[in-house]
Amino acid sequence: MDELISRIVAASGLDEGLARKAIGIILAFLQKEGPATEIEQLMSALPGAQELADSANGGKGGLMGMVGGLMGGGGGVMALGGQLMGAGLSMGQIQSVSKEMFAVGREKAGEDAMGAIVGAIPGLGQFV
User: Fold this and answer.
1) What does the CA dihedral 91, 94, 96, 98 come to, rounded to 10 degrees?
2) What's the pLDDT tens digit per position in 14-36?
3) Phi–psi pair at 74, nearest 5 degrees
4) Which tens digits make up the pLDDT trace of 57-97?
5) Structural domains in the chain?
6) What's the confidence (pLDDT) of residue 72?
7) Which of 4, 7, 56, 102 could crosslink 28 through cysteines, CB 3.0-4.6 Å?
8) Among candidate residues 2, 6, 50, the one with its CA nearest the CA of residue 24
9) Longest Cα separation, the chain
10) How far apart are CA 3 and CA 24, in angstroms?
11) End-to-end CA distance of the chain, in Å?
12) Angle between helices 62-70 and 16-33 (to 10 degrees)
């Protein structure tokens, strides 16, 4: 996780705290919206990822977060963008964070897993 945070700080200009928050928001979104098998691969490949996702959900991550998503949560990529902007990121920073995060995801979890995640979430491809 430290490598991912360092790369995002370098790519986006965010401080470490905001980089952690942005990563957590994105991971929580992916858990809610993405294909379970590939999300599990990604989360397993990034030690500390579940903790960041849980912190972004206010502790409502894991199975309960997924159940909540099935019960009508959502809003898709636009809601994710709104959440990140609400955390203090500009559109350029959102794109930098997303691109770097998915680059690290491809390195750690593999191209197949990340391709399946991007393909399963409408609109996500424009950010990565």
Assistant:
1) -140
2) 999 999 999 999 999 999 999 99
3) 135, -140
4) 875 444 444 444 443 445 799 999 999 999 999 999 999 99
5) 2-120 (1.10.490)
6) 42
7) 56
8) 50
9) 37
10) 15
11) 19
12) 60
